[in-house]
Amino acid sequence: MRVEPTLGSASDWQSLAPRTPAGRPPLDETALYAAAIGPKNQDHYLSRFKAFDRRGGTRLGWHWPAFLWTLYWLLYRKLWWHALAYFFAPYLLLTAAAVLVPAVGADRASLVFLAVFALLFVVPALLADGFYFKHCRRLIERARAESSDPREQKAYLERKGGTSRLIAVLFYVLFVPGLIGIVAAVALPAYQDYTVRAKIQQALVQAKVAGDAVGDFYGRNRRVPRDLAEAGHATAPSPDVRDMRVDARTGVITVTLGTSAVAGLSFVLQPEAGADGRIAWRCGSQEIPARLLPRECR
């Protein structure tokens, strides 16, 4: 009588699984990847690596750390040769850009430097997951070549893969203070410009009050006043305005500033005939940098 084979229990199937010489089942790909990646952001990389395996190759993707901190990320993930190449890349690319700019002309120089930016930051961010996947695959192949024992393979991957603690420490010791310094170097001048611009705006408000007085005087008398006092405007003491006067010939009001960063510099209000017959004022300056002027004075 013929007996049909039946499915055994899970333990029966486990006993049929391939064994290593040490008698232990080999690690599956997920466990090998996890050992090579390490605990940091493991879920992110595992999902990408599994997708690469299903597709049979890498695909472009976006990786923010590789965009924002490219060299640090390469070192942190122990991509030593990639980091070395990236370290020299800016020198090579900027040298090439210096050669290309005279050839393409100054009007296209921005395109050259945009290409340099893309090669240094955008391209690594698009290729980062693929680079790291191939790196981990090479580590797994070496681990398998080193030993057939799963424990030794895992130990090898954890030792050669994962992240670099030294680079992490250096990042916090060197990069973070440097980043704070860069932010401060950018933000402090911007804040100083903002405060100076606010002071000039206050002076402009005072100048417009004087302009209204001059305009009213001109409307009544059909001439420009000899000075602001004749126009009925009393200049109040102000730390923002050192002097304010009107030209009796042209009607131009000149405002000399007292704010420290622009002390002694002036802007003017030039009279123009408005559509309603009243005087309109146009603000401008040949002395004060445009970035410090209110928008209507630029």
Residue-averaged pLDDT: 85
Strand content: 5-15%
Supply the helix-strand structural class: alpha+beta
Q: Pick out the low-confidence regions.
A: 1-19
Shape: elongated
Tally the beta strands: 4
Number of helices: 9
- Sequence of strands across the biggest β-sheet: 1-2-3-4
Percent of residues in helices comes to 55-70%
In whole angstroms, how far apart are the ends?
103 Å
The topology string of helices and strands comes to HHHHHHHHHEEEE
Number of domains: 2
Radius of gyration, whole Å? 36 Å
Biggest sheet overview: 4 strands, antiparallel
Please give a structural write-up.
The chain is α+β, with helices and mostly antiparallel strands and 298 residues long. Helix content is 58%, strand content 8%. The chain has two domains: 17-163, no CATH class; 206-297, Glycoprotein, Type 4 Pilin (2-Layer Sandwich). Strands 1-2-3-4 form a four-stranded antiparallel beta sheet, covered by helices on one side. It starts with 9 loop residues before the first helix and ends in a 14-residue tail after the last strand. The model is unreliable at 1-19 (pLDDT under 50).
Sequence-ordered SSE layout with sheet pairings:
Blueprint: H1 10-16, H2 29-37, H3 42-55, H4 64-68, H5 70-76, H6 80-104, H7 109-146, H8 150-160, H9 165-221, E1 241-246, E2 253-257, E3 266-273, E4 279-284
Antiparallel strand pairs: 1-2, 2-3, 3-4
Helix pairs in contact: 2-3, 2-7, 2-8, 5-6, 6-7, 7-8
Search tags:
298 residues; alpha+beta; Glycoprotein, Type 4 Pilin; 2 domains; four-stranded antiparallel sheet; 9 helices; 58% helix; 8% strand
